[in-house]
Amino acid sequence: MRSDGDRAPLLLRLAAAGGLVYLLAPLLIIFVYAFTTEEKSFVWPPPGLTLKWFAVAWSRPDISAALLLSLQVATVATALALVLGTLTAAAVSRTRFFGRETISLLVILPIALPGIITGIALRSAFSTFSIPFSFWTIVLGHATFCIVVVYNNAVARFRRTSASLVEASMDLGADGFQTFRHVILPNIGTALLAGGMLAFALSFDEVIVTTFTAGQQQTLPLWMLEELIRPRQRPVTNVVAMFVVAATFLPILAAFYLTRGGDEIAGGGK
Amino acid sequence: MSAIDTAPPRSLGGRLGDLFWRRPGLLVALMLMPPALWLGIVYIGSLLTLLLQSFYSLDEFSGLVVPEFTLATYAELLRPSNFDIILRTVVMAALVTIASAIIAFPIAYVAARYARGKWKALFYLGIMLPLWSSYLVKVYAWKLILAKEGILTWLFGTLHLSWALDAILAIPAIGGNSLSVSYIGTFLVFVYIWLPYMILPTQAALERVPVNLIDASSDLGGTPAMTFRNVILPLAFPGIVAGSIFTFSLTLGDYIIPQIVGTSRLFIGQAVYTQQGTAGNIPLAAAFTVVPIVIMGIYLTVAKRLGAFDAL
Question: What does the alpha-carbon distance between residue A99 and residue A87 come to, in Å, rounded to a whole number?
Fold first, then answer.
């Protein structure tokens, strides 16, 4: 029997290994470039290695300001998405009502359509109603496409949570808020945590919608984009890029070890 | 005394709970109100504002938007210079999708059927790290790799294959001065960035292929090639179509990759960006955004027929 123990054909293994190299090598190269002594070009191999760009990047006020703005936007957008996404998921999974399909479509649309459409639609709405760009215009865009990831996680969990638990709680005399606090929340808690983390990551990295809703403000991805189009400080950009990759590495590793037993592909919901 | 009289007086929350229990529709309506208002007003409202603009036109002399209904802006899309942009984007999206499917399949297949222990962890990292790493950092990494003085040129030189690289770059239309300013470069980056979106649904579909079907096929005398063609591929196909929705749609709408790596000729996303920004022609920009919406509408209808939504 060709069971799990046997090995893949050589050609298949080579193709898969080649694919893995293609997927991982570019990220590893980022790490090498962060230490290069070369300032003006992307020359390979690096002529020398140095640590000085870490100090330079650390003391740059524009980078820390961009990082702070990105963190603030992601936090507020995630909070909004958590509330709106959970409400939608609860309503959709609880009952069958007229327009249920429309609601699901409405939630998925902001991420199904290319980001540039969401971006330019928001920009043209802002200019039509003369809303000035602010922290809140960025949050508005981010929360809109973050709702879907919270919704997806929550709706799957609501389907698996038995409705009789809620009925039992009510029968035993708990009011609606007690039921929510002691029965529903513990059941959907981890799904909300997962959804919230995905939403945060999505918002933190978003650049396409943000270019249309930020005006003069700079989030970290916008700072990065500026450096990509008009490189001024290549070594500093290398260091920032390395940190961003390292920052994603740890949660991914944690997610792998936490979900190892299950057959779901963790993080596959992006 | 009746049972009702002995019951403790209900709190406000309790009475609300009772009301919602008797009238579940009320609770659902209350729960749906905030998200429906948000998406309905902020998102759909914005989309409609945009759509409306595409039926306006730009006065060529004053440069102002004329708010009168016209289809002239859509006709402008068919002008050769604009139609080329649409064609270029659709061809690129199709090629990227095909290449992603081909590269993704072996990875997904080995990850789904053979990888165990350490290898499983490596495959997991190999798919998840590129998926979750910052989009711009990935594009940046490719700018480093494809640069004229970068690692690919060095690699070809070390292997004494510089002539091959020069030959590739000399190909008219898709070649260029260096990889980072050629269509080949744009293509490589697109495939890299969207590849995980193809691998995941393909892998999920392959994981659902029962091993005993494959065993049965070989027991009945099917060669590996026949088993692949008649058993594995048909079962994995909905997953591949599901992945292609992402690779196709994401390539159609992207405007950052071709701006950073590639020629100066525009893709749809860039056309939208320039029209609304420097050119100030919001109607044309809006008409351009309708193109990917229509294409994706057709694509999704076909994908639904092929069963892709069950594989998501």
Answer: 16
> SS3 sequence, B16-83?
HHHHHHHCHHHHHHHHHHHHHHHHHHHHHHHHHHHHHHCCCEECCCCCCEECCCCCHHHHHHCCHHHH
Taking the CA atoms of residue B255, residue B259, residue B260 and residue B262 in that order, the dihedral angle to the nearest 10 degrees is 110
Of B103, B142, B256, the CB nearest to A19: B103
Q: Which of B31, B46, B49 sits opposite A90 (nearest CB)?
A: B31
Q: What's the pLDDT tens digit per position in B47-76?
A: 888 888 888 888 777 777 777 888 888 888
Q: Which carries the bigger pLDDT value, residue B269 or residue A263?
A: B269
pLDDT digits (tens, 9 = 90+) for A186-209: 888 888 888 888 888 889 888 889
Task: Specify the CATH number for A60-258; select among 1.10.260.40, 1.10.3720.10, 1.10.3210.10, 2.60.40.10.
Answer: 1.10.3720.10
Name which of A183-197, B3-17, B284-298 the model is least confident about. Answer: B3-17
Interface confidence, given as ipTM, is 0.81
Radius of gyration of chain B (CA): 27
Contact with chain A for residue B151, Cβ under 8 A? yes
Residue B65 bridge partners (DSSP): B58
Cross-chain Cβ contact A267/B121 below 8 Å: no
- B89: tokens are 């984007």
Judge: B140–A103 Cβ closer than 8 Å, yes or no: no
